[in-house]
Write a structure and sequence with these properties.
The protein is built from nine helices and eight strands. The chain is of the alpha/beta class and 258 residues long. The strands form two sheets. Strands 4-5-6-7-8 form a five-stranded parallel beta sheet. A three-stranded parallel beta sheet has the order 1-2-3.
């Protein structure tokens, strides 16, 4: 059996003390491939450096809504730099994570929208899919995607369990990636959302080191725990764990063009 964790942050400082040892453990525990996601200029650089060393890891590079600068002038400079980072390596498989987050930041919505729209344009120019972070910004996220064609489409990472968002995302041709929250006891509509997503548009991820699935909630997460999310999906859809592993592995290979 082999798994593909479509979104993790092995570049996060929470892995600084045991990163190399842990990466080998992950790869030796059926996690055949995984994404290391950038969310800022520095984290994107770090993702690329890690993935140069480990051929089973793939970087995505972008500036998240929680990491954009405070001025438009600086944003344009950062966008130019992230584009250059992507252009100067042949490893990056998507632009991301990008999007909108009104949970942490409500005061800079216009700047978030600009960063999101411009990185969509960047992805089209570079011929890459996008990886979307959205939190408490469903309507604006969908509106921007409708206004800005995304040629290679992409993924709603750690997709919020919102039926309208999922329906609209699927209509637009995006993949839905499930993470640890679908296993949480208080995720009342997780089963419904899982059943909404057709098998050929479904991915699994950990978003590690965050959002550990049950029964590991509250501990540092890592890509090995993607199996627990896969098992939840298998239980809901009436599939075997191996079937979910195979389906999501092939889907990830397809959207990232690996």
């Amino acid at each position: 059996m082999k798994f593909f964790d479509s979104h993790a942050h092995l570049n996060d400082e929470k892995f600084d003390e045991d990163r190399e040892e842990l990466i080998e453990k992950i790869h030796n525990d059926e996690i055949e491939k995984f994404i290391t996601a950038g969310y800022s200029i520095e984290s994107s650089k770090k993702a690329i450096e890690l993935c140069k060393k480990y051929k089973f890891m793939y970087p995505i590079c972008g500036i998240s809504p929680n990491d954009i600068p405070q001025t438009e002038d600086q944003l344009w400079k950062d966008l130019a730099e992230i584009e250059q980072i992507i252009k100067t390596n042949n490893l990056t498989v998507a632009v991301g994570e990008i999007g909108l987050d009104y949970y942490w930041n409500k005061e800079n919505k216009d700047l978030q929208k600009l960063a999101f729209s411009e990185q969509i344009k960047m992805s089209n120019k570079l011929g890459l899919p996008i990886v979307i972070h959205t939190r408490e910004a469903v309507m604006d996220t969908i509106e921007i995607l409708k206004q800005n064609e995304v040629i290679k489409k992409g993924i709603f990472h750690c997709c919020p369990l919102n039926r309208e968002l999922v329906k609209e995302a699927l209509k637009l041709g995006f993949y839905i990636s499930f993470a640890g929250p679908v296993t949480f006891k208080n995720s009342k509509n997780a089963d419904e959302i899982i059943n909404l997503v057709p098998n050929d548009k479904m991915l699994i991820e950990t978003d590690s080191p965050y959002l550990s699935p049950e029964p590991l909630r509250g501990r540092r997460n890592d890509p090995r725990n993607v199996k627990l999310t896969a098992q939840k999906i298998a239980d809901v859809k009436g599939l075997t764990l191996e079937e979910v592993a195979n389906i999501t592995y092939e889907n990830a290979m397809r959207i990232f063009e690996i």
